[in-house]
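Sequence in, structure out.
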Amino acid sequence: MIANSLFWIGLVVSLGIGFVYFRDLGDVTQMIIRVKRANMVRAIRHEYTLIGIGLAGAFVAGLMHLGFGAGPAWAFWAGLALVALFYVFPWVYVHLGLRNQMSSARYYPIKEAKDYVAPANSVLVIENNGVARAHPDHQLLRPHLAGNAEGLDGEDVVMTYCAMANLGVGYKPEIKGQRLKLEVLAQHGNNLILRDNATGEPIQHIYGRFDGAGPNDDGMTPWPTFRMSFRGFEKAYPDGQVYLNKPSANPLLRLFDMAMEIAFSSGIVRQHQEAAPIMSNMTHFDDRLPNKTYVWGIDIGEDAVCYTEDFIKAQGNILNTTVGGRDIVFAHHPEYDSTGAWYNDSGSSVKRIDFFGKSDHGQLQRVERLKPGLFWHVWVQFLPHTEINRVSRVARAA
């Protein structure tokens, strides 16, 4: 009687917790199940506690069945199969399939990268003192994080990437002076949720802050990040380095990675082609722009504005504006296939600015809070108060 009770209790506890773990961190489950953000955050914070309790329940059920003959065989073996699915799949998918390269990324000369990156491919670029690194979207698709001990000319900067949002942001991986141990755990609102493994706390990718922190709270410091074509990168930075996620030398790992790439690629192709988000975990919708419009957004304090590239081009490829009390100039440079934003502290409108920030008012600095070319439906999900193509607040005329 006691053995039977322990068998059923252990099995139910194991399957119940396993289902929650699978639902909240299984990722692909979000294609058919609407996962609440609060549940996902809880699972991220307590992942290994959930796994430990769940597997302990399975151990008790197994001990009672195999050692004392408790419970029917069909229930035990069916339950064991579900336990394997609920616990093994999410853990392998997240921790092995999405293993990041925050500290182990490798960068290659442009000449070598040409074998892997087409001239028209979009790349995410970070630069420091003329040292530039390009990150092709398709190379970042699975690792999500790329950086190494060498740093960006000595600066500890990690490229973070969310394919669901089409968003790449360079961040200095520290908050309040403490270096973070970042890992990709999930996505919600079509944007990554990272975890700092040093504290167990989740971090929303688009914000770079711990969950629950406000816009004026401390977060990771963003590094100026901009998009351009690979051919534009070669033109601007002939000595630049390119991130490549080359296949593993381990044949089993290579096959596993290949399967992951195929699964990821098929989903991301749909995300770019279909109007609706492929994972319907959005809580805010806004039809001011089509969902999959690419926007260049800036948020400073409580203020948020985004621009479409077409709008900037229509202004003669240059636009003066104000965001969060800071004068800013947007510019599109067709020769580099790039749109960027720079702080303008001159007190006058900028009429000319080149790709490197040299303007008719001197050298300007790129805006570190620019989110280049992400999907509109993701930007407005997290910043619903955003304005679009602001023209009412412009820098003071010269």
